[in-house]
Amino acid sequence: MRAGERVTFRPPPPTPVEDLPEDIPLTVLFEDTHVIVIDKPAGMVVHPATSHQAGTLVNALLHHCGDSLVGVGGERRPGIVHRLDKDTSGVMVVAKDEPTLVALQAQFHAHSLDRRYLALVEGVVAERGTFRTHYGRDPHDRKKFSSEVASGKSAITHYAVKERFAGATLIEAKLETGRTHQIRVHFSDNDHPLIGDRTYGRPPRAPHLRAIAKQLGRQALHAHVLGIVHPVSEKKLHFQTEPPADFQEALASLRGTP
Length: 258
Fold this sequence. Notes:
Blueprint: E1 28-31, E2 35-40, H1 57-65, E3 89-95, H2 98-110, E4 114-122, E5 128-138, E6 141-146, E7 153-165, E8 168-175, H3 182-189, H4 207-216, E9 221-229, E10 236-240, H5 245-255
Parallel strand pairs: 3-9
Antiparallel strand pairs: 1-2, 2-3, 4-8, 4-9, 5-6, 5-7, 7-8, 9-10
Helix pairs in contact: 4-5
């Protein structure tokens, strides 16, 4: 634009926001009048967005929980306390009323939960370790994140080796903070990208790993442990699930590789 020029914009009428219940099967690990804990499958988006208006976890929850979930925490993310990436499977907790939502969010903010993930990463990593970085939007690609942002927020991931294979390692990562894509970015920025991660990884050099990554078609990441304190009963709740079939097949292939 040049000095003195004027721009006029007339926005279109707003589109009504209404997320509809959908009869989508859910694997429910625990449920009472305050919370529901589910094992989210890979490929399911958590809440509706521009590119995913239906078929999300929220649509499934609205059908499962009925009107009690509507409006809890916002119209488009009712009951959503935390998220998992579309292609990450595993345990999630959802609040069924506003006080429970606030209480669970406080636990996440205080980092007082037990959150552990299983991931298949490329290469040989140390037996255990911790990533402590400054985390934020990648300055070169705003759709990605980076652990090398000087002005970024603190991000801490602890990990330990569970099993070693030819050219790959199964690790358990424990989150102290929960930044978007944190595990994927921390391992990628340290030259051990998750197998199958098309955003932060690259096709593995080893033919057997390339085949496994192609078969997976997603990052090899599963949220297998979630420990919380029930906001009402104050009881400690612990949930653990095994990785889904595609992850198990990848492990079987690696165990069969000499």
